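quick one, two chains, predict together pls
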Amino acid sequence: MNRMTGIIKESIIEPEQFSEYIGSTIKVHGSIYKVRRMSGFAFILLRTKREVIQCIYGEEFSRFSLSEIGEEYSVIATAKVVKEERSKTGVELHLIAVEILSRPAMESPIVINNKKVDTSMENLLNYRPITLRNEKERAIFKIQEGLCQGFRAYLSTQKFTEIHTPKIVYAGAEGGANIFKLNYFGKEAYLAQSPQFYKQMMVGVYERVFEIGPVYRAEKHDTSRHLNEYTSVDFEMGYIESFEDIMQMETGMIQYALNHLKEHYRFELELLKVKLPEVKEIPTIRFVEAKELIAKEYNREIKDYEDFEPEEEKLLYEVIKKKTGSEFIFVTHYPAKKRPFYAMEDPEDKEVTLSFDLLFRGLEVTTGGQRIHDYEDQVSKMEERGMTVDLFESYLMMHKYGMPPHGGLGMGLERFTSKLLGQDNVRLATLFPRDRNRLIP
Amino acid sequence: MNRMTGIIKESIIEPEQFSEYIGSTIKVHGSIYKVRRMSGFAFILLRTKREVIQCIYGEEFSRFSLSEIGEEYSVIATAKVVKEERSKTGVELHLIAVEILSRPAMESPIVINNKKVDTSMENLLNYRPITLRNEKERAIFKIQEGLCQGFRAYLSTQKFTEIHTPKIVYAGAEGGANIFKLNYFGKEAYLAQSPQFYKQMMVGVYERVFEIGPVYRAEKHDTSRHLNEYTSVDFEMGYIESFEDIMQMETGMIQYALNHLKEHYRFELELLKVKLPEVKEIPTIRFVEAKELIAKEYNREIKDYEDFEPEEEKLLYEVIKKKTGSEFIFVTHYPAKKRPFYAMEDPEDKEVTLSFDLLFRGLEVTTGGQRIHDYEDQVSKMEERGMTVDLFESYLMMHKYGMPPHGGLGMGLERFTSKLLGQDNVRLATLFPRDRNRLIP
């Protein structure tokens, strides 16, 4: 009988330790990202977990032949660490020997080791398993990881409990046309459009909860901002005094996450030349005032009093940025007609709800608001809308047996990442996007 | 225009700060968990985010009538903090006034405020939105949160990158009978049984990756250890020297998470009287040797040389615990026939794979192993098994264009939590379980 102790004996040196090893011979492993042959020597770039390390092949010190290696070979290199101010890591590695762990069966049809992958978006996504190996491509998803870490860490400091709720849901769930159906052992089931019902239930348990997980929208749109499966950052909080508490919490969460990126993801931010937005404060504007502002500023007619056209979201961004400097804007008090049945109406004007969207650089990245917590109020609202109340028995249980005032939001992680990085398509911030036409890879 | 600054002005004092406020009058909010009337006074238990706080109603200092309040009312209480050694928080609160924020429409049909919820599992799960409010019930999922935090934190220290991969997958995915089907805009799609393909692809990108997310098994079993949707803790790592590296990593991850619980979840561990297992080291045993050991120790006939019977897993636990003291055991070298097409065969014996299960207190909680990384090897293996290789084009892309030796595992979060807490049914460690017959709530 052997025994596992949790200790991995690794002789591998990580790039951040290189400076401690100047003059020594070390071992590193990685994939050969690029070979640039010069006369009498070669630059060999080695792709490791996070960095691409510059190595030198030199006839005087390398004890192997350049012809033995190739791009996308996985290797363990033995190398001498040499000081080199011009390198990002402050050193370069003089390769002495390489042990080859694996070789590709053939060369990639797409060049992945240039500054960027120079191909169509279609190809970029079709060849995801290899195009993601590009230094800039993979940096996108490190930043996405950093955002998640930041959001989670902030919500933990604010005493939110992390939960995991089911994505296969029952008939009475949010409903609407944009929902994927599923045969669940002979019953009709759906894929959750959001963890809405469950996170509300959990407010009755822990007061503050959050979940970062997949959600599903069977929307037929095939636009630059729609995905049919995406990652939603959801939180819900009880004992709010006003729906502004939710917007304050989100503002704090974003501030925290951007600082987290600055501190821990500087390498990727620089590589992608990301300009982080200033978020000292985020202005708010009522929906109807936003509509009027856009109409006035751009001399446009208001066609739809209940919703924004995508073009209007962009114009609102421009005018708000001009007036306040902010790249974020909370739009509040959306018309009740356009909000779900659980949205709390404004007691001062029943036509609007205590709800908001957060727009970031002209795109809606969050929807949130206060929810109805009183049982009678919720049942009446559902009846007004002609809903079958009985179908919602388990949802209404929390209202029936007592719920504090509460509200929350859902933020699209890919949209947020995409706007942060200045991309023009949300697919670029999705590892393996799902859209109407894309199910592979 | 209003402005959000990220600062929430809260006058609410959290329980851990109470000791700083002895003698002062403070405000707290929460749900009234229990009212115990005595003569001339009453104990009022207030359920807050994590603690249940003992408050005293006394005719001499309370400026309201007991009849004004009831269980599951949400309130803001104004109270004086009084030292009280016998209370868990070291203080008790003398209630001066309560502001009622909401009232339930009726009383819960199930008593939730006793030490435990005394009802059938059926009821416990049917009334989940309220039974989870029980102090012990909710402690279970705080511990589950703590485990996730611990796993994530450990994997971050080990330089794993967190990823989010799609759960709607295409035809060529792992397959088998136990898979939920879905109509995806006219195409047949499936719910992912694991992030297997995607995490392997991402090893080519980041070397080490992990994901904690939902997975789906359309298994018809309705047992105490099966769920049709559960949360999988998956990691995958490149540049392994042996499949033992994966087991070492898991051992380290478990050690770290249990220490994290000890440090940050002491309150819940004590409430649930959890005995954390010692995990200094985890023994390993080959599958065939485990079978023989059980046969010998318990004088049983070996009926199935390819798999364990559930009873055998329990017996193995007993004998290993007796011999080594360990409540965990890694069983290694499972027969190749029973492992998936991507499992790496043992070069010394092609009948078995470089794979393992981790058994915890007699239940399989993890399956893992080394994967085939060579393109030709993988294609041959698939052909041997009669698979349609073309369907796997996007999966095989990584092998074709170069992959390091790698492997990983998937751990069932609910199973792990359940065994840790000494439960006899995995549903008890699931917020809203999905089984053959359960889709609601």
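Chain A has a mean pLDDT of 95.
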